[in-house]
Design goal:
The chain is mostly helical. It is built from two helices and no strands. The longest helix is centred in the middle third of the chain and has 52 residues. It is elongated, with a radius of gyration of 27 Å. The chain starts with a helix and ends with a helix. 0% of the residues are buried.
Length: 74
C-alpha cells in the first residue's frame, strides 16, 4: 500500500511538472535561485559570527596569557 501510494504521488508530481507553462518554469527557477541566495547569505552570516567569536576568544586567551606571564616574572 505504501509503495503504491508513493508511486502515485511521484506520478502526480511528474505530471504537474510537465503541465507547467514556460512562465511558471521561469518563476520556479527564479524562486529557487532566490532561496539559494538566501541560504548562502545565512551561511555567510553564520560564518562571520563564528569568526568573530573565535577572535574574541583568542583575544581573551592572549590577555590571560600575558597576565600569567607578568605574574610569573614579578
Amino acid at each position: 500500500m505504501v509503495l503504491e501510494r508513493r508511486k502515485r504521488e511521484q506520478a502526480q508530481r511528474e505530471e504537474g511538472e510537465r503541465d507547467r507553462s514556460p512562465l511558471e518554469q521561469v518563476l520556479l527557477k527564479r524562486q529557487q535561485k532566490h532561496q539559494e541566495r538566501e541560504k548562502e547569505q545565512e551561511e555567510k552570516i553564520r560564518d562571520e559570527i563564528q569568526l568573530l567569536e573565535f577572535i574574541r576568544v583568542r583575544q581573551n586567551l592572549r590577555k590571560v596569557h600575558s597576565a600569567l606571564h607578568k605574574n610569573i616574572n614579578s
